[in-house]
């Protein structure tokens, strides 16, 4: 049960960091060999699609470019719920599957709408020092995201 609470705390911190546009804080929660992907399945072409793939350094570069992007700056809120926590191949690593919902609330606190639904497929290294994110695949069910979002989910 201790591993599950450690894992839950790490995933919550990643969501809170992204919700708060704290990209340096997000990267601090990631292993030096961290890999990030956004994928979706297309029934039309009957294939998986890879929408974004970055390592930690490339993700940092992407985050550094965000202030220069012409993008929708409406705040996003991520909500997750852990489904499974299983041992991974390496000692001290676990694979975690979580449900993910991303909401958008207008600046004045008006309408809140659902932006995306999917799953986090994470590999997390757990040690006595805590936990770090080694690999994250954001597997989206939503494929029509509209325009203006450049921030990873």
Automatic annotation (TrEMBL):
- InterPro entries assigned: NTF2-like_dom_sf (IPR032710), Rng_hydr_dOase-bsu (IPR000391)
Q: Which Pfam families match?
A: Ring_hydroxyl_B
Name of this protein:
Methanesulfonate monooxygenase hydrolase component beta subunit
Indicate the family of this protein. Belongs to the bacterial ring-hydroxylating dioxygenase beta subunit family.
Query: Keywords for this entry?
Result: Hydrolase, Monooxygenase, Oxidoreductase
Q: Which GO terms describe its molecular function?
A: hydrolase activity; monooxygenase activity
Name the species this protein comes from. Cupriavidus phytorum
Keyword Nucleus on entry: no
Q: What does the organism's lineage look like at the top?
A: Bacteria, Pseudomonadati, Pseudomonadota, Betaproteobacteria, Burkholderiales
Is Oxidoreductase there in the keyword field? yes
């Amino acid at each position: 049960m201790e591993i599950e609470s450690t894992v839950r705390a790490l995933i919550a911190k990643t969501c809170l960091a992204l919700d708060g546009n704290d990209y340096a804080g997000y990267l601090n929660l990631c292993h030096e060999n961290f890999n990030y992907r956004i994928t979706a399945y297309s029934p039309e072409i009957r294939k998986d699609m890879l929408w974004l793939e970055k390592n930690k350094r490339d993700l940092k570069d992407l985050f550094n470019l965000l202030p220069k992007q012409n993008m929708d700056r409406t705040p996003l809120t991520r909500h997750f719920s852990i489904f499974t926590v299983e041992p991974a191949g390496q000692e001290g690593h676990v694979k975690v599957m979580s449900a993910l919902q991303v909401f958008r609330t207008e600046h004045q606190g008006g309408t809140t709408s659902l932006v995306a639904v999917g799953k986090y497929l994470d590999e997390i290294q757990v040690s006595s020092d805590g936990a770090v994110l080694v690999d994250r695949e954001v597997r989206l069910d939503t494929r029509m995201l509209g325009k203006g979002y450049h921030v990873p989910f």
